[in-house]
Amino acid sequence: MSETASLADQAETETADLAIATTALTKRFGHQLAVNGIDLAVPRGSVFGFLGPNGSGKTTTIRVLLGLASATSGTARVLGHDVPSGLRDALPRVGALIEGPAFYPFLSGADNLRRLDSADARADPGTRDARTARALERVGLTHAARKKARAYSLGMKQRLGIAAALLTPRDLLVLDEPTNGLDPQGTREVRSLIRAVAGEGTTVFVSSHLLAEVEQICTHAAVMHVGSLVAQGSLDELRGSGERVVRMLTPDGDRAVAELARLGLGAAEADAAAAAARRAGPGEVTLEAALPDDGPAAEDLVAALVTAGVRVRGFDVARPSLEERFVALTGEGFDVAR
Ligand SMILES: Nc1ncnc2c1ncn2[C@@H]1O[C@H](COP(=O)(O)OP(=O)(O)OP(=O)(O)O)[C@@H](O)[C@H]1O
């Protein structure tokens, strides 16, 4: 087999393992670049967090993936089918909930689902009642099946939306900010539902501006910033990809900086807020230095500092947290609440 052929085969196998794959996907609105050449790779079986602040391009990307908007350039595949030409084949296996579910308030939850089910030409009318009952059970709404949708709480409406997305078996569930506006109880319900759906083998692609949410429910994540994808991978990969940082507390700042420089590390005083948080006493300074993966071991650094006469009152080596890492990537904070 030629090298070109085997590379093509390898690319094909890799794409087959992906529920969503895009190449240089771009969407412009006039002069505005809402999505800027993104290469998304969402592994099958993952719970994939699509993370980014408001306005970073998440909803636009989702709309393009589902054929609700057309890309300006680039390519996308969903469940192995080209978007938009192959969406007719992909969409029956994709459940989606974007920009909040719309229901008839005067119909019960079950009747709303029946109505949606009847709009699906492939759904057998003979098994409609069983299908709606199963979907309601799946999201824990059996007790509220006959209640009018207008009497549902926001969390119940959101779960009804997920039930609608799960009326038929799905390989991929796409959820746009599914916990937006929910109270803590509703948030917990929706998150545990996502875990349960993923546990049954469905790939879940979920957008969120909440880092804590992504950390709680996702196996993988991608980070959007002003239309660009600035990082993606498994959460472990994302955590591990930040450079380690040495932080030390000492009354001998100048001597420590000189010794660290001799060891190849450029140390600087931590910013005032961080230093205050570490409660440096009179004359003490908190120093920080990036430590490359091939840099000296922590114990060798401490030994060298002590030998050089530096009084080491505090010392630690840590990878940045996911939050610190994402702030570094995007230059802005994420809502970490809830
Ligand atoms: N139909 C449209 N026409 C013009 N600009 C749009 C349109 N839809 C989105 N945009 C712009 O594209 C950018 C990305 O918006 P998008 O809704 O995709 O972001 P998002 O990350 O989903 O944010 P949010 O969580 O607030 O929905 C924003 O600047 C937005 O104003």
Automatic annotation (TrEMBL):
Keywords: ATP-binding, Nucleotide-binding, Transport. The keyword ATP-binding applies. GO terms for molecular function: ATP binding. Residues 20-251 form the ABC transporter domain. It comes from the Bacteria. Belongs to the ABC transporter superfamily. PANTHER family: ABC TRANSPORTER, ATP-BINDING PROTEIN. This is ATP-binding cassette domain-containing protein. It comes from Occultella glacieicola.
